[in-house]
Design brief:
With 368 residues, the protein is an alpha+beta fold. Helix content is 49%, strand content 17%. The protein is built from 9 helices and 8 strands. Strand 4 and strand 5 form a beta hairpin.
Length: 368
């Protein structure tokens, strides 16, 4: 689900802005219209963020910072007139905490955004709309990065981490004319964060830094699968999250060809176990868990019975799918080096074909 943008524009105004932006782009590329640098500030509290995130080095000018929200220029977005924190932010405070002190890990960015001087030379309404449209293009890129970053972090390790609202401030000036804009994006699909905050050891932080710096996680080719996995992380209701996580496994390991559409429970249990199990005991344990979990999902889907689905087995299922995805991504990176144009279906067929051979070996030894 895309973030909710609070700005609203009439059809007439929107058409004007779209036409003006296209014209500005043409003229700017031909150096007929100069640009100025507008300042852009981004700020968001990271729900579930801990001090360990201060060791993470982000791309594109983003930073994790520990900030006392009472000292922040965005204080009014999080604190009411009585000095109380809004919403569920109070659950995610970090020490020290006292009157006029509420510390959080925050995601911040300061940047300069090129803006045509035409945005400062029209009438007031059209100037602000044109300025807003220019800043919106920059904002879309930041929202894309934020969502990808959260996906990478959830995929890397267990732990609740969310961003609920992202606040933006833009300022631009051309000679005596100045423009100022405040904007907000709500992440309407965020999960609730009350506990199990996102904590990294020093070695995990170093590993995550390498993943971020080298763009190791190929999110695009697995986007639909990772979206399902994220629901399994964020969804409040265990039974709904459970269904999405089982679907992740089905997508990765079933229907790799037109004949692979029967006995799904047994195939998924066998293939996942063979894929992520590190020894015979693990393979057997994962297999048995997955047979049970598949039955839980079926009972909920067909009988509306979900008492057996708990936060504990949901977490275990999520860990299985996380391990499967991380190994899948490693294999995708290998395949992409020799065949850059290969797609998910090609890679899945190759992976599953090899897994089937491993399953046969485990079966011949009585493990599966």
């Amino acid at each position: 689900m895309e973030p909710i943008d609070r700005s609203t524009k009439s059809v007439k105004t929107r058409l004007f802005v779209e036409h003006a932006l296209k014209r500005i782009e043409r003229l700017t590329m031909s150096n007929e219209i100069p640009t100025i640098q507008a300042s852009a500030t981004l700020f968001a509290i990271v729900l579930g963020g801990t001090d360990s995130l201060l060791n993470i080095h982000l791309n594109n000018g983003f930073k994790f910072e520990k900030i006392n929200i009472f000292d922040s220029p965005f204080k009014d977005k999080y604190v009411n007139a009585s000095g109380q924190l809004l919403g569920n932010y109070c659950f995610c405070q970090l020490p020290p905490s006292s009157e006029n002190q509420a510390h959080f890990i925050c995601l911040t960015k300061n940047d300069n955004v090129p803006c045509s001087i035409m945005a400062f030379t029209l009438n007031e309404m059209h100037s602000l709309n044109l300025f807003s449209a220019t800043m919106d293009e920059w904002k879309k890129l930041q929202e894309k990065y934020i969502r990808e970053l959260l996906s990478i972090m959830r995929l890397f390790k267990e732990g609740n981490i969310e961003i609920s609202n992202v606040f933006y401030r833009f300022d631009g000036r051309y000679r005596v004319n100045g423009l100022h804009l405040n904007s907000e994006c709500q992440h309407a699909d965020k999960g609730e964060v009350f506990d199990n905050f996102y904590e990294l050891t020093d070695s995990e932080a170093a590993e995550l830094n390498q993943i971020i710096a080298n763009n190791v996680y190929c999110l695009d080719i697995l986007k639909n699968v990772i979206d399902k996995f994220e629901v399994g992380c964020k969804e409040f209701r265990n039974e709904l999250a459970f269904k999405e996580l089982i679907t992740v496994g089905e997508t990765l390991f079933l229907n790799y060809n037109s004949h692979d559409n029967a006995a799904k429970k047994a195939k998924l249990a066998n293939r996942l176990a063979a894929w992520i199990g590190k020894n015979d005991l693990e393979v057997k344990s994962i297999h048995d868990d997955m047979v049970t979990y598949y039955e839980y999902r079926s009972d909920d889907t067909h009988e509306s019975t979900n008492d057996a689905i708990t936060a504990t087995n949901r977490k275990k299922l999520r860990e299985y799918m996380r391990a499967a995805l991380k190994k899948y991504i490693a294999q995708i990176n290998i395949e992409k080096q020799s065949n850059p144009t290969c797609d998910f279906h090609f890679i899945r067929q190759k992976i599953v074909s090899n897994i089937i051979n491993d399953v046969s070996d485990y079966q011949s030894r009585g493990i599966l």
